[in-house]
Amino acid sequence: MTQLCADRVVLVTGAGNGIGRAHALAFAAAGARVVVNDLGGSRDGTGGSAGPAQAVVEEIRAAGGEAVANLDDVSGWAGAARMVEHAVDAFGRLDVVVNNAGILRDRALVTMEEQDWDAVLGVHLKGTFAVTHHAARYWRERAKAGGTVAGRVINTTSASGLFGNPGQANYAAAKAGIAALTITAAQELSRYGVTVNAVAPSALTRMTEDIGVMSDLVERFDLVPENVSPVVVWLGSLLSGDLTGRVISVFGRRISVAEGWVNGPTATGTGRWSAQEAGRVVTDLAARAAVNADAFGERPARSD
User: Fold this and answer.
1) Is residue 2 part of a domain?
2) Active site residues
3) How far apart are CA 115 and CA 59, in angstroms?
4) pLDDT (tens digit, 9 = 90+) per residue, 15-48?
5) Beta strand 151-156 pairing with 96-99
6) Contact of 194 with 152, CB cutoff 8 Å
7) Model confidence over 142-152: pLDDT tens digits?
8) What CATH number is attached to the domain comprising 41?
9) Domain, as residue range, for 301
10) Residue 272 and residue 212 share a domain
11) Do 135 and 208 have their domain in common?
């Protein structure tokens, strides 16, 4: 990855710990100048501290790179605007946005409180939209002024959002929304020279450390944050300009490109269906449709 992103200006949200920290360090090692955004809160989004972001900045600088810390909250509209402005003020422009910030408030659907839903959707989905919106406006103005734009947005989705996961209705809904947002934003922003892709990472971080199966999976599949970052760095480089609107899964050393919703078995009536007829048709079509993927994105064998 050496100098793959030389002189690129990269904003990484939630970069004080875990996967975001790994991304920030990898971009810096590849020659990028990095805005390290992190509110410094706990895993559930409460509290705040300048420590995590500043520690990553100091690590980058100690290795000879350039970085600045940003403490704005991605879920605030004004904060999202300020971090884009911070990048331009500090380094003269912005080339890459990595929307990585996230929190967890896992609960069963029947016990989840309104604030658990709002907080998780606010950071993940609204935060991804807000930062992308302000970055896109910046790139649009550059393009209209005749400047060269090679913008990159890399969003962070999740297997929970793509395949579902009990106990994470809020998180899964947000991550599914991010995947859909990625596809739509890619269609809208291509005219300005901007690509938009998403990564669904699997790694042991403070977000996943209390998931019982993770310790075994980490050892078996090398699920460390540093295995995710090479894909993200390449997506942020000039080499990735032909790829947009894709969701890429990184599970240890395994990389796969997710295939989205497609129409399966279909029936067309000669007139309006009755409810009974529609029910029979749907039952038949569902029986012939491919089985939903499991939590690892694999289709289990049919039981029939």
Assistant:
1) no
2) 171
3) 35
4) 999 999 999 999 999 999 999 999 987 777 777 7
5) parallel
6) yes
7) 999 999 999 99
8) 3.40.50.720
9) 263-304
10) no
11) yes
